[in-house]
Amino acid sequence: MPGVFVITGPSGVGKGTLIRLLRERLPELAMSVSATTRRPRPGETQGEDYHFISDEEFARRVADGDFVEWAEYSGRRYGTLREELDRHTSGGHPVVLEIEVQGARQVRETLPDATQIFIRPPSDDALRERLIGRGTDDPEQIERRLKVAEDELAAADEFEHVVVNDRLHDAADALEAIVRGTI
Ligand code: ADP
Ligand code: 5GP
């Protein structure tokens, strides 16, 4: 089976930005589109950024065993659909899962061969500034995300690889080296 790469770390650390750069450098790398019950942000597209589904549909798909992993994050549910992952791996493509820490822990159990990479911010202040600068979350959401980030950062040592996203292109180089070394 081609590689599965789990990229995790607190919201706002730059996971999405780094994955975009990584995929420019490694176009064969596929991205697993997660399902979520949160609402689309302006500019997000159904089926591209996420499969946006209702609470009822998410619950039904959990009951049907459709998820490789799922977790509740900041009051919403997010999960990786088995069919989404299989579609890429059966086509021979390495695939990236961009997920939070509880989901990464589940993948560690169910797909022990997956490569797990934790992205750290250079400081707590930098994380706050990035969340504010991104402009996608209201102040209450930002505080909730920063609160979750405290626990997530405490979990960094669990991960096989840790990359500090200080200077973006240095972090992208480090991430690319890990992925190339594993494919
Ligand atoms: P995540 O996917 O982890 O939630 P994003 O990729 O959306 O994070 O990045 C959050 C914000 O931080 C974005 O506005 C992005 O442009 C910015 N950002 C990402 N990496 C860096 C970096 N190394 N230095 C400064 N800003 C960054
Ligand atoms: P956001 O609302 O900012 O898009 O995502 C919030 C958090 O949910 C991020 O940490 C993101 O990595 C995580 N996330 C996105 N998709 C999944 C998924 O399929 N499973 C899990 N466990 N977390 C996810």
Task: Spell out the key features of this protein.
9 strands, 183 residues, binds guanosine-5'-monophosphate, single chain, binds adenosine-5'-diphosphate, alpha/beta
Model description:
A five-stranded parallel sheet has the order 2-7-1-8-9, with helices on both faces. A four-stranded mixed sheet has the order 4-3-6-5. The termini are close together. It is globular. It has helices spanning 15-25, 55-63, 82-90, 101-110, 124-134, 139-154, 168-182, and strands at 4-8, 30-31, 35-36, 51-52, 67-73, 76-81, 95-98, 115-120, 161-164. Helix 1 packs across helix 7. It is 44% helix and 21% strand. By secondary structure, the protein is an alpha/beta fold. The structure holds adenosine-5'-diphosphate and guanosine-5'-monophosphate. The site of guanosine-5'-monophosphate has 15 residues, from strand 5, strand 6 and helix 4.
The bound ligands are:
adenosine-5'-diphosphate, guanosine-5'-monophosphate
- Multimerization state: single chain
SS field, number of helical segments: 7
Ends apart, CA distance between termini = 10 Å
Strand line-up across the major sheet = 2-7-1-8-9
The largest pleated sheet is described as:
5 strands, parallel
Q: Gyration radius, to the nearest Å?
A: 16 Å
Which segments are poorly predicted (pLDDT under 50) over 5 or more consecutive residues?
none
Number of strands: 9
The succession of helices and strands, N to C, reads EHEEEHEEHEHEHHEH
Q: Give the helix level as a range of percent.
A: 40-55%
The averaged pLDDT comes out at 96
Q: Can you tell me the overall shape?
A: globular
What fraction strand? 15-25%
Give the structural class.
alpha/beta
